[in-house]
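Task 17 of the worksheet. Students: predict the tertiary structure of the chain below and write it out as structure tokens. Keep your answer in the requested format; marks are given for formatting as well as content.
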Amino acid sequence: MQKQTLLYFIVGKSTFTDKDLTIFLEEYQVYQFNFLASAKWKTLFLFVKQFFFLLKHISSAQIMVSQFSGYHSFLPALFSRLTGKPFLIIAGGTDCHSFPEIRYGNFQKRLLSSFTKQSYKMCTHISPKHATLWESEYNYSSSSPAKQGIKAFIPELNKPHTIINNGYNSDKFQNTGKKIPHSFLTVAGNLNYPFQLKLKGIDLFLQLAEKFADCSFTLVGVVDSGNFMNFPKNIKFLPPLPYDRLIELYTAHTFYVQLSMAEGFPNTLCESMLCECVPIGSNVFSIPEIIGQTGFILERKDLNLLHMLIEDALKSDTIQLGKMARERIAKNYPLSRRRKELLNLCRSLEITTKRVSN
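Model answer:
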């Protein structure tokens, strides 16, 4: 039996785009368009290229899906409006946020905000990865807007949405070795951009290394270690690493630290918890729900509060908390659940659209 056709729009490949692609390939013939511009001036060229991609494939497509909203989702949304083909936007984080003080989030950039809003308004359905990405109160940092989420920035939006959390393979991520006592790990990308240091809480992580000299700290994602000079000897800087190496690091470390100012649904936090790391996270978006009672939450971005939190963490039963952390992710966020819910949503959008067109 010939598979239905799905058009898939992304901005750069990542673990979550690949995981969803694998899910879609189970039931669809997928044509993928990567709207990744190596320079800003190439964005216009990508619009032209995407326009002809849509002209070629739209007639055979049963559904279109975009990871995030932005420039890359505008033309698919427009084609959806013109042709009646269903278009699903998976909202992941930056397309739901505005943090002007660190220049992060689609909604704090005028032109990108406009394309993001129009995409949401014209699409068929939205699937945020967590309920807080739809609408939420924010009080972690007093300098940030108190309301976040899609509805906070598009209050007039009246679009159906379905929350589908990320999912993880508990067989792949397991604790396979002995953990180093008093060891802390965090993983981040794009650390060559200054805003990313505050966004991912790296500024706090580095200060922790100075405060807790008898502990070891590992930061993964450093492209140029020259940008991290004059830091204590108890912190190790590593470049971006493949999955297998990350699993080794998760296994070796006692604590995983996620002190981000904003997140959608952080993969490394969940993966590390499956490897029985004790989670330490900021009180933002999905993080408190992910951690639950298995770790420690920093209520506000405050260094004194963080120091007290780490002291409590060092006194805790890390073996028991690590086992609880693994169980929580395996039970609440299995990859099989995301697969089922995502495919069911796509099928329902196809059926609903056919009924309307008939």
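Marker's comment: The chain has two domains: 4-167+335-357, 180-332. The two ends are 24 Å apart (CA to CA).
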